[in-house]
Specification:
It is a single chain. The chain is an alpha/beta fold. The chain has a single domain (2-153), classed as Mannitol-specific EII, Chain A. Helix content is 45%, strand content 23%. It contains six helices and six strands. The longest helix has 15 residues, at 116-130. The radius of gyration is 14 Å and the shape is globular. The N and C termini lie close together (9 Å).
Length: 155
């Protein structure tokens, strides 16, 4: 299962969509950061629309899943494939997470409406990876983006 998951994250996550050492002031800024990352590297997607998609999903219930992790996500037909982005904010941000803890790892996922099964599989996969305390710690300690990316995509 670990190998397949790593393959899936490799497909979804471009190194340009990983940022570490961020200082994010609040939930809105966190969602805007993730939306901007989801547009990289080619910039074809509409950042404002992706932000609105993430915000709309967030209004249903916080995507702060606990243990310092949030997985803001949504469906947007401005992208033709599922994509993920990662923002690491070591100081944490109040995200109204289920356990009340500040969120330090944000993994945004966006994909077209035509891929609901793949979208759910990606959410489950990311959640499974980030349930691993060692992975979370390695991400928080990553010295640079490349190291953070490798932490996520290697089995």
């Amino acid at each position: 299962m670990g190998y397949r998951l790593a393959v899936m994250l490799t497909e979804l996550l471009h190194p340009e969509r990983v940022r570490i050492g961020l200082t994010i002031s609040d939930k809105e800024a966190a969602l805007r950061t993730v939306a901007a990352l989801l547009c990289l590297p080619e910039g074809i997607a509409n950042e404002e629309v992706i932000y609105d998609v993430l915000l709309e999903r967030e209004r249903l219930a916080s995507t702060g899943v606990g243990s310092g992790v949030a997985i803001p996500h949504g469906r947007y037909d401005g992208v033709d494939e599922l994509r993920a982005a990662v923002a690491v904010c070591p100081a944490g941000v109040d995200f109204e997470a289920v356990d009340g803890l500040p969120v330090r790892l944000l993994v945004g996922i966006v994909g077209p409406r035509s891929m609901p099964q793949k979208h759910l599989a990606a959410l489950a996969g990311v959640s499974r990876v980030l349930r691993n305390d060692e992975k979370r710690q390695a991400l928080l300690k990553a010295a640079n983006r490349a190291e953070a990316y490798r932490t996520l995509v290697e089995p």
